[in-house]
Amino acid sequence: MPALWIAHVTVTDEEAYGKYAALATEAIAAHGGTFIARGGRFVQLEGQARPRNVVARFPSVEAAEACYNSEVYQRALSHARDASERELMIVETSE
């Protein structure tokens, strides 16, 4: 089953987060991920709003997890940790 990688982000350091984004894009593509939404317009109906929201589609939960645990993505995270506040989840889709 396909899966969605959903991130809600508040960027606190644009320069460092740019380094994260470049490496994360590489890692996501290498694991079969494609972006569905990346920082577009949104309407927050419940919960805490974050100004940046990203959704990527992966072939499976396992592919998305492998991406997260990959060497390239972990390097990307080293730039994001002090440059953002974020939540990230993987959700299996029904189709």
UniProtKB/TrEMBL annotation:
Know the name of this protein?
DUF1330 domain-containing protein
Organism of origin: Pseudooceanicola lipolyticus
Instruction: Name all DUF1330 domain ranges.
Output: 2-93
Q: Which Pfam families match?
A: DUF1330 (PF07045)
